[in-house]
């Protein structure tokens, strides 16, 4: 009986065995809410090429619904793999201004059935849409073949536009 008591005395007095240290509390991790990145002022080249190809495929097709002479609208988004895609396709009356697009829209394509300006091209409504939403807009004219196309963006604090060729080649920026 003496040996176990002696062992306990030696172990209690032994400085080689450190006293038990309580475990450290887990680190505090702060997670911030995800903030959606704003779409680029000038769309990526793949968006421009997709708009040129997909938009011109829609040109000349009839519009269903209550508006026989409606403008066609395509909302461009990215799919789950990051490729450009058409998020929605709709029609609005010819002289109606575009409403603000839903979140996640990267660019909008508007197909005009006929020209409303003296020189064919984007209308004042198209420029106003870009100024209000800071979102790229591609305008395609269905009145000619091949269908002419313009890109309108908010760049350097102003609305600017340029022509886009049949396969996505671009012209100089104009005010």
Question: How would you describe what is shown here?
Answer:
- With 175 residues, the chain is an alpha+beta fold.
- The chain has a domain at 45-164: Cytidine Deaminase, domain 2, CATH 3.40.140.
- Helix content is 21%, strand content 24%.
- The chain has helices at residues 2-13, 45-58, 124-133, and strands at 71-78, 84-92, 107-112, 137-141, 149-155, 158-164.
- It has a six-stranded mixed β-sheet.
- A hairpin with a 5-residue loop joins strand 1 (71-78) and strand 2.
- The longest helix is centred in the first third of the chain and has 14 residues, at 45-58.
- The protein starts with a helix and ends in an 11-residue tail after the last strand.
- The model has no long low-confidence stretch (mean pLDDT 77).
């Amino acid at each position: 009986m003496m040996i176990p008591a002696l062992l306990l005395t030696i172990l209690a007095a032994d400085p080689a065995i450190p006293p038990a240290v309580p475990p450290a509390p887990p680190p505090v991790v702060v997670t911030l809410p995800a903030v959606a990145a704003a779409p680029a002022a000038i769309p990526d080249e793949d968006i421009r090429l997709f708009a040129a190809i997909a938009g011109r495929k829609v040109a000349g097709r009839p519009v269903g619904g209550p508006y026989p002479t409606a403008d066609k609208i395509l909302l461009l988004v990215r799919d789950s793999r990051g490729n450009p895609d058409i998020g929605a396709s709709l029609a609005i009356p010819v002289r109606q201004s575009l409403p603000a697009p839903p979140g996640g829209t990267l660019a909008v394509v508007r197909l005009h059935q006929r020209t409303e300006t003296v020189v064919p091209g984007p209308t004042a409504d198209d420029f106003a849409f870009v100024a209000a939403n800071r979102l790229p807009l591609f305008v395609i004219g269905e009145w000619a073949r091949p269908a002419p196309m313009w890109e309108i963006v908010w760049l350097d604090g102003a609305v600017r536009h340029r022509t886009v060729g049949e396969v996505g080649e671009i012209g100089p920026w104009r005010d």
